[in-house]
Amino acid sequence: MILAQISDLHVMRAGKRAYGVFDTSACLARAVDRLNALSPRPDVVLITGDLVDTGSADEYARLAAELARLEIPYRLIPGNHDARATLRTAFPAQPWDGEGDAVCQYVDDTWPVRIVGLDSLVPGEVAGSLCDARLDWLDRILARDPARPTVVMIHHPPFDTGIDHMDRLPLRGAEAFAAVLARHDCVLRVVSGHAHRAMSATLGGRICTTCPSTAHHFALDLEPGVPARWTPEPPGFQVHRFLGGNRLVTHAATIEAFPATRAKAG
User: Fold this and answer.
1) Dihedral of CA 185/189/193/194: which sign?
2) Considering the domain 2-254, what is its CATH architecture?
3) Helix H or strand E segment including 31
4) What's the pTM?
5) 148 to 144, 206, 248: CA distances (angstroms)
6) Whose CA is closest to 163, among 207, 197, 206?
7) What SS3 state is found at 159?
8) Which whole number is the average pLDDT over 150-169?
């Protein structure tokens, strides 16, 4: 099984650009083209939040129109830029657990790898949170089939990134999340976004990764106190290949395709 992942699409109203620079809708269009061209084709695309920029209905309409071109099933979770009720209305076919402004999360057993979408959104805040109710729900879902290989999707990375302006707004409840993960060997990977960079860490004995944005990136600033800066690094995505058992390999790739050249031995 192959799972592709894109994140932090930040689709905006027509004519708007992120920071006056990045045409996020055009970036998403290129990402859709790239995903459709992959061979072998992924079984599902995971989209880990910040789907749109302000949570408006017209932004979600633009997002839905672009994702309609995606020739692969996809699963969504909200990020801090999203609005739950509007998201649900725009994407009623997603397997949401609950309705209205309730948390947008679910479990999907369609494929060999169980996909759990976990909602870390706190309305009106940049930081995320995993409250007791959300973690209890996750604990019950994972315990329901403890041998089932599982990928957990969440928008906010559950670990310190080393980028100071990101870590000043950490995911609340990360320690309790780690305790849940430690109880369930079935979790092969926790995949997230929000950081606008590719990173990896461990939490509760599980590998956690972040996915680059389809549009724009935070600069790799590891000095304390450095303010947020954007950088026009190549937009990217990730591919997670399930090899059976507890084996999941994660690949990082760029949206722009580069021609392959045959390597010479030695």
Assistant:
1) positive
2) 4-Layer Sandwich (3.60)
3) helix 24-37
4) 0.95
5) 9, 15, 13
6) 197
7) coil
8) 95
